Amino acid sequence: MVRAYILMTLEPGKAMDVVKRLREEAGVSRVDAITGEYDAIAQVEAEDVKGIGTLIVDQLQGVSGVVRTITCLAVE
Fold first, then answer.
1. DSSP SS3 for 39
2. d(CA 21, CA 60)
3. Following DSSP, what letter does each residue of the chain receive, concatenated?
């Protein structure tokens, strides 16, 4: 199993709506609105790196309000 953290930039005023929506997605373990440079962070899991990429493109980036994502693969 591969785990990754996804840092997200969201449209202004949409953070809580996006967070609630992403919490319903398969493969998403946790999503939190955060302070700082990014608006939200998600912890995701998949069978392999390709699965992480598919999850990000098909599920996270397709959600209305998500502007940009940064993927950080867990190494341990």
1. coil
2. 10
3. -EEEEEEEEE-TT-HHHHHHHHTTSTTEEEEEE--SS-SEEEEEEESSHHHHHHHIIIIITTSTTEEEEEEEE---
Helix (H, G, I), strand (E, B) or coil at 76: coil
In this structure, CATH architecture of domain 2-73: 2-Layer Sandwich (3.30)
Residue 22, number of CB atoms within 10 A of its CB: 21
Strands 40-46 and 28-33: antiparallel
The SS3 assignment for 40 reads strand
Which residues on adjacent β-strands are paired with residue 3?
45
Q: What is the pLDDT of residues 14-43, one digit of tens each?
A: 999 999 999 999 999 999 999 999 999 999
